Amino acid sequence: MSQRPLGRDFNVISEASGIHIPLNEVGGVTFVSFVATGDNTLTLKESIAGASEQNLVEIDTVYKAPGIGGTWTKVVQTAAATFTNADATNDMFAIYVRARSLSDGFDSIEATVDAGTCFAILHDLAYRGAPEGLASSV
Predict the structure, then answer these.
(1) In whole angstroms, what is the distance from residue 106 CA to residue 2 CA?
(2) Does any domain span residue 2?
């Protein structure tokens, strides 16, 4: 039986808002946020193991879509540490950040949403293994 993508290609953190996620063992992270009203803001910060936190001005491309049905729409903005969604139709959005986007000496990232949910998908895992041995939180 071949290995499944979970544990080989990605990991998921279900409650990621406000959590410092280390990126030293992954290639990047996608934050996905949803709120039924489509009205929320995500703020991105980088840190050194959760300390020395500062804004990460990296959000320049966002994809948003309806929570159910529909297709993804690309949104381009001037690079910022925040993205505000005010779209009741496209009430879900996804933001990808490469690990190498962090400033020198920084190793962790945090996305905080002011409403709704936010989960994280960690991509390109350095250590691949069976899902049964994979931590589902940080």
Answers:
(1) 35
(2) no
Main-chain phi, psi angles of 24, to 5 degrees? -75, -10
Q: For the whole model, what pTM was predicted?
A: 0.93
CATH number at residue 95: 2.60.120
Asked if residues 101 and 61 have their Cβ atoms less than 8 Å apart, the reply is no
Owning domain of residue 106: 10-126
Encode pLDDT of 96-136 as tens digits: 999 999 999 999 999 999 999 999 999 998 887 788 877 76
Using the Cα atoms of residue 116, residue 49, residue 54 and residue 11 in order, give the sign of their dihedral. Answer: negative
Decide: residue 126, CB within 10 A, 0-12 exposed, 13-18 middle, 19+ buried.
exposed
Number of Cβ atoms within 10 Å of the Cβ of 89: 11
Q: In terms of Cα–Cα distance, which of 64, 97, 57 is closest to 79?
A: 57
- Does residue 131 lie within any of the structural domains? no
Counts of helices then strands in the chain (DSSP H, E): 0, 11
The number of beta carbons lying within 10 Å of the beta carbon of residue 79 is: 10
